[in-house]
Amino acid sequence: MLFVLAVSGYCTNILNVPTVDSSLFRVTQFASGQPLPNSVIRAKDGSLLAVQSPGFSTAQVVRYTDTNKDGIADGSPTVLYSNASGGAGTQIKSAGELYYIGEFGAKSITALAPGANAGDPLNKVGSLDFQYPAGHGHPTPGLAMRQTPGQPGSVDLVFNIGSEFDSAVSTTPVIVSGMGMAAQSLQGDSLYMVTISEVGGTPIASNLRQVASGIRNVYGMAFHPTTGDLYFADNAIDEAGVANPLEPPQADELNRIPAADLGTSVLRFGYPNCYPQYRTNVLLELGSGACNGVTTSLINFQPQGIDASGARSEGPAEIAFAPSLFPGLYQGGVFVGFSGGTGPQGTNNQNPLVFVDSTNSLLQYFVAPGTIGNILGVYATEDSLFLSDWGGGSIYQIQAIEAVPEPGTFVFGLIGLAVVAGWRRVR
Fold this sequence. Notes:
By secondary structure, the chain is mostly beta strands. The chain contains no helices and 30 strands.
């Protein structure tokens, strides 16, 4: 099955100028007109694999190529995997030979094996399956992966068990099984890590352990490429009803688990009784001793500047460390996509791409709120960021200009962007 690819091309209107120097980057609309793109990853042959969700009912992995390296997909993508009963797909990750995708409707993390050739179908070879209690508030799996230290052929998969409620401690366990692992009970408000052997092509899971507590709903996670620390963005407690114009009580957070603590300690991050207040950044302690032993966040996502429309960032999605060939200002920093929510007159003005520098002291809008739909996917290669715009149906490539091959001619034009308002953010 092939999708019809709408017109894509060069675009100059998504970077937050003048805060971002657009002369340093080539920005292209890599693909457009796609069904709810969530997440992308580079395949071993250099092509791009994307998770998409036609009708919000089918999880698919599709493959794009860009043979002339102009930042625009060659044509319609090829479907490599499709699960019509899996509900929407979320993220795609890999650290070894297999790919792992989140399947929201199926409540699973599915392992996919590539074929002999890059364009061959991906075959399901196993899954971790989750049983959530009825009404569980945050069943969407956030994922991060690394190669298991000292264990060739194995990978470590980190996933979240989001909170059962909006602003209270989870009370009912979540059950996980699969990949050769017997059913086990998991605590809500937590991050877990499991080691998966990929030897022989069949994933075998073992050594399931909790690595964090006191989180609310983590979607974006990534391992630092040099330190091995795990960074993650936590979605904060909602305002009183998503249609309520009042602001939330808690700021979204960027947090870190040092590599030395990962899998050896269970760090606590404060939800629901110890958190930074929205706007003021004051640490609120709801109850005596609620903040004792809580790991301090690296940065809290507060509004940048004063905007009469109330533009801000809410609902952090995927995160990625800055490409190594990006300009010096961005070296070692983190990019965080935000899904946003409904603002004045039904517009989404809470959906920027935020940059956090390596010292966690500078926070800026790299793509301003309201520019494109919902930035659920953020993925970094050596020289580029790829943004998956769920609401607008597009994938963008932001490439460091020094890494761009010299073309014969460039044709620049205005690109019409379809922004879907009213997406209920990841929160």
